[in-house]
Amino acid sequence: MLPPVLASLLHPFHFMAIALTHLPPTILSALLTGDFGTLLSPSRLRAAWFGRFWAVVGPLVRIHAEPNVIPLLQGRVTHGVVPPPTTTTTSSQPHPPVSGTVLEIGPGSGMWTSLFTPAHLPSIDKVYGIEPNTDIHPLLAAQVAAAGLDRDGKYEIVPVGIEALAESGRVARESVDCIVTVMCLCSIPEPRRNMAQLYGYLKPGGRCMLESRLASVYWRMRNVSRYRKVA
């Protein structure tokens, strides 16, 4: 078994190697279906490649991330500290759980969609899933339906990135109670700029919950954190 420090250094390379194995079948699929537009567009090829890769890897990632993410959304994380596994929800809940109107940033294949159901978060009224990668939308839509969130449009997929959200007109400024982003800020350009834009969608007193693989992403929030919008 490798020492923890060495394992952490090698992990990104291992992860990239796994990702590379999904590139040839992505190209082959485009060739077999005659989708030459994807083959000739680096951005579309990258999106299709990621969709194929994340459909396989995403569920495995969720298993390892659940001990951080579930307490975060339930309001049991304080100052980036996750309570011990033995701590119950009722005995330690320093903050309100995710509720009201929610922006989920980068839902990907929908691996966290089931957490927005009444069984986990009973006070959610509406979720907007901000996901610009349309190649992954079928997987996301399937997870939304499996969770029963497609009824009455409770979960709405918004096919744009953060930078195009205002132009889309799909979500009004200062209309959101909670913003949730899990393992997304580490994969988008200019996280500070994007988070600043998202801040404008929060109602006064609205909250943001984020989990990221970065050591420091915004306002020195590390791994698991939350912040509240000041009126």
TrEMBL record:
<dbReference type="Pfam" id="PF13489">
    <property type="entry name" value="Methyltransf_23"/>
</dbReference>
<dbReference type="InterPro" id="IPR052356">
    <property type="entry name" value="Thiol_S-MT"/>
</dbReference>
<dbReference type="InterPro" id="IPR029063">
    <property type="entry name" value="SAM-dependent_MTases_sf"/>
</dbReference>
<protein>
    <recommendedName>
        <fullName>Methyltransferase type 11 domain-containing protein</fullName>
    </recommendedName>
</protein>
